[in-house]
Amino acid sequence: MTAEEFERQVIAGEITDFEPYLTETSSIKEDLRNKAYRLILLAHGIEIERILELDGAFAISTCIREGWFPERYDEWKDRNEEWILETFAENGYYLDELIESEYDDVREIVIENHPDFCIERLNQGKIYQIVHDYIQNEAKPNVALFKAYIEALKSNNNDIGIMTKYRAMTEVPATIEKTMSDVQLFEADSPLWATDLTVAQIHDVLEAHEELKSQEHSNFTEYLLTRVRDDDYQPVFGTEHSSTLAGDFRWYWLMQELKRIPPTRTKMKEKPMIPTEYHELASKLQTSETPVNINHILETFADVQLEYIGKLTADTPLVGKNDDTYIFITVENPTREERFIITKNLAHLLLGHVDSYSKLYHRQANELQLPASRLAMAILVLIEHLSKQMLKSNDDGTVNMNALAELYDVPVNTLITYAKELKLIERN
What we know:
By secondary structure, this protein is mainly alpha-helical.
């Protein structure tokens, strides 16, 4: 029978045995029908306790939405069940408590459904922080609350991420802007490139853009605006972590550049030279530190997870892969030899040996070791810096390779070989 007919018969006293509707059955269809019947019984105050026990949060949430049994609301609130608290929040109960709920969704429902309540309390430090977190991480925040949030603290007017998002939500696109791509909008200083982004995502884009621009990269805006919208991208603005967006682009750029490097599995010439591309890659990875902090370089790669151990015992592969993440073994304060081993393993990764030549890589094949060693030294010792140091040393006609090895914190014999291949010193 229909729910309407069931209710009519209950009211008329035609149904007095409610037991068939208060037990679970093996039929999903019958259970759903009985659940609807039980709500009718609940509305008429019949078998209240059994129904609340049987249907739990579903029955309680229905009572709250319908305004039934308000004398029990305190009891139900104190159960601290998320679904029940969400229903209270939706219907405007206990807002002073629920705005500070431990459940993110409960707080968001208070904010979304009762913005006026939040606006009135923005001068309260804790409420302001809760609204702040919402504004930072919501792609479509309530506009009125957003405006009040900006006005609550003058410094918000100087926050480019906040103002870009607010303008993107409130400004009417010009006719020409409707035809422009996100990249074109960004380059034209229109805020509309950020319409579907959160404030945190916007900050990540702007910070990455400045960082890459300072490093003299080019043609990266489209990548940033695409990557930040990927489902697996996690904004880091406002957290204790540094932005990974610029690092994601550097990794992408490296992969594109590596495609241009000739295959390493070719017969070497009698006097092999280090490919120019190796030095170009190294210069993009380099920092101003001498000696290079190889662990800092590894930390710039978004898909590399570092695992620290006490000591490296042999020149063996340190890189493994877990789904889309590379697990990289390293040490916190490596010796010269360990620094070279760690960097050579990074070179194997950059040259595609880990993904494309896993069998050869794990056999330590010579044809892979030589290019990896050369790229490793290019990373640890920039050719321009080494050339200047060699010229200084040559004033008296000699080169103190031990002193240079100490400067760069690399094995002296490896540095000598590197210098010979660069033709900075003569081969014996």
